[in-house]
Amino acid sequence: MSLLPEKDLIWSAVVANSSMNRDRNASGINSYEKEFKFIPARFLEQKVRENGCASWLDLCCGSGLALIQTHTDLTRKGLQQQVQLKGIDLLDTFPPEAENLEGLTLEVRSVVDWQPDRSYDLITCSHGLHYLGDKLKVIAMACSALTANGYFVAHLDLQNIILPENILWKKLWKEQGLQYNSRTRIISRTGTLVFNLGLQYLGADDQAGPNYTGQGAVNAYYDLPDSFMPHSIGCC
After folding, report:
1. I need a labelling partner for 230 at 20 to 30 A (CA). Which of 9, 72, 82, 96 fits?
2. For the CA atoms of 37, 107, 173, 209, what is the dihedral angle to 10 degrees?
């Protein structure tokens, strides 16, 4: 099998998925509330009450609709100057009016090689990891960018992470201080976390076919360096 490097993967039609997360709402039907069981605006309001300010980073944010709706909700309550919102997506489907919203930044690029220059109270990735190559790198980046009590939550299908040995993923996440719900396929973390699983990323397969979402997904392939002890990453 020929695996794609990140620079080639981003041009894949599977990665440039136009239907999975382009217009997901902040709350209500087809929303972050439904997927993650909280409303982003309310989460950020609570952070403002606790700290005087708040921030949300939405990875693979689609058109940025949830961010824009959250900005609108916060503006109604006079909180827009106390909250920083940032969205990143590979495709530029952002509405032009979003450029003029105070405290909202939307950036067109791949998240895999992106590094934040600040910490965030909330980091989300709704169905975005399915289409990324080095998924573990992005998870590690997100966890390291959390504030002390910040919250990271994302969809992750372990079937799209291919390893040469039988690794106990649930044990692995627990050892690293992450939570993984195998029923909802959601990974989460509260509080800053810096970790390195010691896995070598080999490349991606964009012909993996549909995962549990029914949409085509990308398999990420990893290897275990000879110098790394298998038991340290949750092998059975």
Report:
1. 9
2. 90
* Residue 107, φ and ψ in degrees, nearest 5: -125, 135
Decide if 101 is inside a domain: yes
DSSP 8-state symbol, 2: P
Question: Would you say the C-alpha torsion 196, 197, 202, 206 has a positive or negative sign?
Answer: negative
**C-alpha to C-alpha distances, 170 to 166, 195, 231, 233, nearest whole angstrom:** 12, 16, 14, 11
Residue-range definition of the domain harbouring residue 183: 6-233
In a domain, 84, yes or no: yes
Other beta carbons within 10 angstroms of residue 235's beta carbon come to 15
pLDDT tens digits, residue range 39-82?
999 999 999 999 999 999 999 999 999 999 999 999 999 999 99
Give all strands (DSSP E) within the chain, no chain letters.
Answer: 54-59, 83-89, 104-108, 120-125, 146-155, 161-162, 179-181, 186-190, 200-205, 219-223
d(CA 83, CA 105): 11
Tell me how far apart the alpha carbons of residues 10 and 94 are, in angstroms, rounded to a whole number: 18
Eight-state DSSP code of residue 184? T
Type of residue numbered 94: F
Q: Residue 1: inside a domain, yes or no? A: no
pTM for this structure? 0.93
The CATH number that applies at residue 13 is 3.40.50.150
Q: Indicate whether 231 pLDDT > 50.
A: no
Domains held by the chain: number = 1
Q: Which of 123, 95, 90 is nearest to 108 (CA)?
A: 90
In the three-class reduction of DSSP (H, G, I as helix; E, B as strand; rest coil), residue 157 is classed as coil
